[in-house]
């Protein structure tokens, strides 16, 4: 029996007599009454802190340790760890040996093997332990979860995902010594690089102090610096414009004491032309060149339309007839698409807005939820699979939550930590 299931059984008192006030018997025939199961601890140390248990006529307050077998106490070397000195109850599935405390007295042991309802045990094994080859463990039963419970859990899961992104924002804030504009620039650069060039673009952003970015943008010199640092001005320069870009890069690279190139090599392979690094770097340079107050504009923007309008920029003139340096095509404008801007809102604007509001002691959760809900459902394989088994609102709030649910719960078999899995185990 997996310990994670026993943790669930103990935490939610899913065993016979746990909630009725009924007296249970330990292995030593002591009478046990569970008053408080304690606080679940997922870090080092006992599994539950500050439990309250009445053993015979004595009220005990302390920690509870849970194992599949009693002998696991010794296998895990708890007898030599002072963190386990305050364990008042040992909860096990199978009692295969006596366990003693440092005073050489037996630790009361509660055996759960015959105290778990048969239906609950069957539901758990059917959901978690039986190996499945489908999309997720509960794909044939997830539709049974009540809508209000599903909505509540997906909102909570989304904020888990957002907190992860906010942690990355805060790490950048520390690295830039509290420069929010630099944080936005680095986060935008990473997401302009998409998956293929994310690391290269972020390194590029980190190589240029933001005060230099601001100066270059005002002088309309940011584009050649970005292209040059990315190693893209080494190609054959067959126009006066490219020759000038190379001269501008050489001059500003020395003036601002910038490196000659980044370590990462930008990639074109597996990218559609609109995502080529040449196009994305030009669009980002134009974004900063045309908006001297980008950070404040984005932090104050509340709706999708406002943000879409801020990002309504296209490449510089050269890229109207090029995707790369070596081939030209008939002139066409290359604006940031609405779909790409939506990705920037999800992965850049919302996390930075959330972190920035928190730093100022403000709560903008509801505003951000409304913003996310105004963005159309993302289109990818994971979401398509969920659409086949579940009804949910077609917006980015739900697609982001479902992506997090799949990667952080379903793929890791964490049904016991999932509110949907908990419901199905208790009600299937």
TrEMBL record:
Give the superkingdom in one word.
Answer: Bacteria
Record InterPro entries? DUF2851
Q: What is this protein called?
A: DUF2851 domain-containing protein
Species this chain originates from: Leeuwenhoekiella blandensis (strain CECT 7118 / CCUG 51940 / KCTC 22103 / MED217)
